[in-house]
Amino acid sequence: xxxxxxxxxYQVTQFGKPVTxxxxxxxxxxxxxxxxxxxxxxxxxxxxxYDKDFNNEADTPDNFQSRxxxxxxxxxxxxxxxxxxxxxxLCATSRDLGQGYQTQYFGPGTRLLVL
Amino acid sequence: xxxxxxxxxPLSVPEGAIASLNCTYxxxxxxxxxxxxxxxxxxxxLIMSIYSNGDKEDGRFTAQLNKASQYVSLLIRDSQPSDSxxxxxxxxxxxxxxxxGTRLTVKP
Lengths: 115, 108
Hints:
The complex is a heterodimer. By secondary structure, chain A is mainly β.
């Protein structure tokens, strides 16, 4: 089945220790997104890739970086996690950016705990 | 003003009743609208998309869109306990923006 996969599902890291979250998709979608969702809050878009074009949200901290080495994979790097970065990190994909193709499909998420 | 607003709830309805969830948005040029369901600790799951004014039905779910009034709603008929979840409204103008969600509880 075509799907969006995230690894790991749970990650515990120490304050300041770099962490990388991964996302892969078999949908062959052009667009991949990373969201941060804290408890009882809306998912917050961090950035997205349209193919190889990187689009950063204006308020995404520099501490968050992303890589998309190929169509199928996208990584979220948190260079120096702080306690406030404890959250669920959601990867999503969409076929394209035009109307009718923007429906986003989410992976299962990675729950990150920073101690 | 938040871009996408939802009543946080909790909204409680008895099993078999109609649950009505509402969402308003601020950007008049928004073109695409979505409802997602999110169970506790899980990721959002797409329920419906709607692009044109009026109603769109899919099984027990009906989405309603009124662009002039800038609101979109979701009706769930014959509510089941398994419908208990947080329902997220999402709106696309440039990027997808989510509301904070309405928590629905369906009581047996």
